[in-house]
Amino acid sequence: MSAPVVDVWGPVAPGARSTLPPAPEPHDEWALAGGMAWVYYSPLNRRQLVRPVILSDGFSSGSSDLDQLWHGLEENGDFRFISELHATGRDVIILGYTDRTASITANAETAVECIRRAVAERVGRAKLVVGGFSMGGLVTRYALAKMEQDPTLPDHETSIHLSYDSPHHGAWFPISLQAFTHYATDKWGDAPTLGPVLRQFSGLLNSTAAKQMARWHIEKVGETPAPAPERAEFLKELDALGGWPRSVRKIGVANGVGTGKGNGVKPGVVAVRCDGETLHDTWLATQAQGAQEVARLQKTGEDAVSVRTNGLPEIDGAPGGLFVMPSPVGDTGSFGLAGLLMTLLGNTVDPDVITTSCFIPSISAVAAGEIGDPKALYRAIGPDHSALDAFLCAGRNEGHTTMTEELGAWIVNEIASAD
Q1: Which residue from 100, 204, 261, 325 has the fewest beta carbons nearer than 10 Å?
Q2: CA torsion, points 328, 334, 338, 341, in degrees to nearest 10?
Q3: Contact at 8 Å (CB) between 298 and 281?
Q4: Cβ–Cβ under 8 Å, residues 325 and 331
Q5: Model pLDDT for residues 227-256, shown as the tens digit of each residue
Q6: Would you give the DSSP letter of residue 349?
Q7: Regarding beta strands 249-254 and 390-393, do their DSSP bridges make them parallel or antiparallel, or are they unpaired?
Q8: Nearest C-alpha neighbor of 264 from the set 354, 324, 363
Q9: What pTM, to 2 d.p., does this model score?
Q10: Could you tell me the maximum CA-CA distance found in the chain, to the nearest angstrom?
């Protein structure tokens, strides 16, 4: 199974994991404050940095994994993105972070340092291309905007900012999934085997980066879904910088369609349900509009807890990039991951689980509308809707940050045609 560029659940997800081969030895490595950059020169440039393209990692647990990033970019079975960039004379710099759950603004400082290093080591005067995958598109967007507005920072000397399925207008973590994760952690977070996994998973959803990205968030069961204060503060800081870098061409792609056609997940239906040793009649539902019970959570022998929402759109089935988790036994997605946790807690999960759901709506990935607007969420995306100068939506709703020839070749052509 092909791995995405950014493995969202990363090492916190239990169960079997795909073993990835090691990435080729980079030509150079840059130790950065808060991260690392791996440099792969184009064969056309004789081991010199001539035309740098910086590609930033995104949101996941822990530190960036070069093997994961290389596999998603280059050995994905569909499109060799790095090789194609090399063929145009571009040198590829893969930017990773020590903590991918840290704030977007903190990791943007690492991105700024990487950009400055690339400008300093570049031979000639070719402009940079800077961007990233998933949250990496936001990190680099913020970094470039800051470099334009902060008089103490040098010119970023960048001509293109690219984003690949980035949550420009927010990401969607199902409220029922958030609630179940926090509930299970409260009840079994001290268990010797599964406890550490639950605590990590709950911590991932409550991390600063997740709070900044999530359009709706709950820190614990019983809270009303709303943008976290960390998101409000990040958007305020981004707005103070002008929202976007202004001296670059902004391009982006979505792993979802732009036609408005959803992914087939029906609203308001049970996605996963279990019963057994530790949980009784516990279930999570897909998101529907209006007042809705999205989850029933009950530890065996205790009273049931009802999780409710109101005013949210039918977003699980919206067009956009889907949750993915590469594994030899298949993609557990979002609700599928909850089902796996239920099983590990000693319960029997009902068959026909709706495993996955929308993670980055297409209108968020191409900055074309508010994902809280039910009509905008499912409308066809026109050129005038987007804040980007150019964008492409996928021909189908596919896994978040899946590298495809359709999207990868379009980006390479956009970069090459800028000469």
Answers
A1: 261
A2: 30
A3: yes
A4: yes
A5: 999 999 999 999 999 999 999 999 999 999
A6: E
A7: parallel
A8: 354
A9: 0.97
A10: 70
